[in-house]
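Q: Could you predict the 3D structure of Decarboxylase protein?
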Amino acid sequence: MTPDAPNFGEDMVTAARVLAALGMVTAFGHVSVRHADHVLITPAIDLAEATPDTLVGIPLDARTLPAGAPGEAWVHLAVYRARPDVDAVARAIPESAFAAGSVTSRIPPLHGQGAMLGEAVPVHDDARLMRSAAIAEAAVRTLGKADALVLRGNGAVTTGCSPGHAVARMWLLDVTCRLHLAARQAGASRPLTPDEIASWRAAAPPLLDRLWAHLRRTTES
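A: Sure. Here are the predicted structure tokens for Decarboxylase protein:
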């Protein structure tokens, strides 16, 4: 952790452990937060075992990753460099994202809460591990202005103003992918309209707070 960092540790560890308890990660996955010109990220360990002392600091302009950082930390750096509105990133591997990412290139919201991921969730058509700046930057170009990205064959990335919001969006992404798959099987679907999406997105911050509190309570009990 960077020596001058505020106490982000407990928030990040809570987010990491909730993500693990939700079954969105196995031995792989990470959570990060922006702090000034650095990123704090969970190390390359099981997220259920993360502690504040294990967090790794990475300069935003890093050209190499420090010891202990996950190999795909590049995607976190790429998001922060491209999106000044983002302060936290979650990287996970919900099984529904593998399925949805294999059948489409774009996942429109079918329910209001799904709109909190963006006008649609893009699918990045590259299943390689994002273990280089170039591969990660290409994925972030696909992300664009959305708050969630499905990586074909490689899980998903979500963003937020806090680690809790990023994890809440990962849970919503799992729901969105499962609804998309069910709707495809049932036949024609009816996505939300642009006005409906805008309305839900405007209401998102307090709703994400409530969802995050619910996820914490249900996984910690």
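Q: Anything worth pointing out?
A: Residues 9-220 form a domain with the L-fuculose-1-phosphate Aldolase fold (CATH 3.40.225.10).
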